[in-house]
Amino acid sequence: MDANATTPLLPEVMEAMRPYWMEHFGNASSIHRQGQQGRTAVDRARETLAEFFNCREAEVVFNSGGTEGDNAAIFGLLRTGDHFVTTSIEHSAVLQAAERVAQRGVRVTFVAPLPNGLIDPEAVRRAIEGETRPTRLISVMLANNETGVLQPVEEIGKIAAEAGAFFHIDAVQGAGKVPLDVRRFGCHLLSISAHKMYGPKGVGALYVRRGTPVEPLLVGGSHERRQRAGTENVPGVVGLGKAAELALESLVDGTRERVAGLRDQLEAGILKLAGTGVNGAGAPRTANTTNIRFDQVEGEALVIGLDLKGVAVSGGSACHSGSTEPSHVLMAMGLDKNAARASLRFSLLKMVTEADVNHALQVVPRAVEHLRALSPVAAGTAE
Amino acid sequence: MEQQTTIAVAMSGGVDSSTVAAMLAHEGGSTVVGLTLQLWDQMRLAGKHGIPDAPKAGRCCSIDDVYDARRVAEHLGIPYYVVNQEERFERDVVRPFVDEYLAGRTPIPCSLCNNHIKFDQLLKTARSIGAERIATGHYAVNEYDARRGRWILKRPADLAKDQTYFLFGLTQEQLAHTLFPLGRLTKPAVRELARQRGLRLAEKPDSQEICFIPGGDYKQFLAAYLEEQNEQVPVTAGELVAASGEVIGRHDGISNFTVGQRKGLGVASPSPLYVLNIDPASHRVTVGADADLATQTLCARRLNWISIPELTGPMRVRAKIRHRHEPAWATLEPAGTDEAIATFDEPQRAVTPGQSAVFYDGDEVVGGGWIV
Fold this sequence. Notes:
The structure holds two protein chains of two kinds.
Chain A: H1 11-17, H2 33-53, E1 60-63, H3 66-77, E2 83-87, H4 92-103, E3 107-111, H5 121-129, E4 135-141, H6 153-163, E5 166-170, H7 182-185, E6 189-193, E7 204-208, H8 223-226, H9 234-250, H10 255-271, E8 276-278, E9 289-294, H11 299-308, H12 328-332, H13 337-341, E10 343-347, H14 354-374, H15 376-381
Parallel strand pairs in A: 2-3, 2-4, 4-5, 5-6
Antiparallel strand pairs in A: 1-7, 6-7, 8-9, 9-10
Chain B: E1 5-10, H1 15-27, E2 30-38, H2 63-76, E3 80-84, H3 86-102, H4 109-128, E4 133-135, E5 141-145, E6 150-154, H5 172-176, E7 178-179, H6 187-196, H7 218-228, E8 238-242, E9 247-251, E10 274-279, E11 284-288, E12 294-305, E13 315-320, E14 328-334, E15 339-349, E16 356-361, E17 364-371
Parallel strand pairs in B: 1-2, 1-4, 2-3, 4-7, 8-11
Antiparallel strand pairs in B: 5-6, 8-9, 10-11, 12-15, 12-17, 13-14, 13-16, 14-15, 16-17
């Protein structure tokens, strides 16, 4: 139950990629027919992605994934003296890029979320107006990886347009879970990653609205209309294309409703335990995610205990495992360290079954009660 | 199937704990889970005050060691997790270590770590994930003595690797739930076992230094740590005096000294001078001849008893006062509350406040405490 960390390939994706490893191995930039097969495959994927984003094909840049897309948007647009508005609940691919540009003389404002995890568009507006120099870029995520909370990107897009700022959306966790529409969002840039939507790891795409002056992160060739040098990852791009195609289908075939139903069932079952609560309750959320606080429980121990019983969940983000710091997202929402450490993320794959949920509902309460019985210390430190 | 007991092995990425994991996994009969406690971020103070930029390989909690431990677990096919205990380690080991030096004593962080982290926290963590017992790669023997109704800690077969000195703080509860599978093996035998089990790290060198001090220079560490904490290094400069009381020089701070230290005193003398005493109140450091270092008695506090429930009267023991000290005959007597006095048969060199004194009866650890 850790689909927000990564997802398995769907069999159709595997099949779509299969010919491009050995049979059609051509370099998509070659002139000969072998290369042309690769080119055609990349072009077809680009068409699918254009549909997925609701943009032109020329506005799709294939890359290595979400981190690269986020980095490319931030490093590619911001220069010394610029003002950059982002939020304190972004993925580290945005936060650490923001820290780096801040060291290079960019003014960065981090907007804090409301206690339910939502970014208030008015807070973004205040961040823009609170700075004398014009705001060059706004970057807000579509769906938070830890809580699943869906951000009001459309409203923020309008504010960005009024302010004349570029708008980047980190849609890594939203892609495949909610429809993407870059025109409706009003964004100039939007990054996604294939492996969060049943595609392969190591490939992603960045939407770049025509005319957006993004300086490329990588140079060395005219690939991707000079926006991203490097030989095209043909099998990966094909896999992303297929994953996007399947995601478009699953957005309308009732999958979301089914997953949301099972998520709600899981959530309701766990909430029967005393001393539990949902982080991000009351905010619109992706169908597959719930982030639950278990008072008087050490989250790390619960993650291990559950794993040994066959339930894979995560405390915070997989990109932070092994760090001491409790989730920056939950802390920004106002939870204290203990409450943040006592919170776990359950994120369901779209092939989740009722049996999976029932298994979790057998294992989780027992594990939580076991930990609570053992830990008088935690009881003393809880609020 | 669910009835199998679970043993959590503390895996450091070294040969000893890896071999323990291999032995237990090979034996079968219980579910084995590998745990590594992440205690200190080796990059935290890197590059500050002369601390090396890149930590040396083979150091506890380095990324390399976690990598090695993970590879061993994978090789053995056992579940493996890294558990972060950096906050507790800093609170219970690093901070007291710093404070002890600032107070003119010579701390011994490994014992603090064993008492507070390796056994207390590890056992808690193990229980929280559903394990009943822990196993470590320490060279020591523990066994239950039904006659006395107590768990006994004994010196291991390989006396050169004896780690009982650092384990005197173990409680009966901890001993009852801990396995020391290497206690009856020698180090060469352990390496041979590691080879037999196909562990790639069978030839990895032993680590010796204090795990959180990259480069091994504690003075660099104190300076870098206090700076990071935005704390002033307390001014503890003072007089250097001879045993007679005569002032023979000045020094920059008491944390630069350890009882028995010869180098770096900054005074010229026809015969070698050694630190005899450090007075944290007056900042006075007394120096004198090697012969003056010897003392007949030591006082230990914060005691823990293992083979006996309590020290009620005089007891003949052999007392060990530092890691590389050959235990010396002494008579141990209770003094004030949680305090004992050991009177040596022969005076012992450099009894150092801050170190621990561990008392042995034959091979058994009677108990121990902290020298004041």
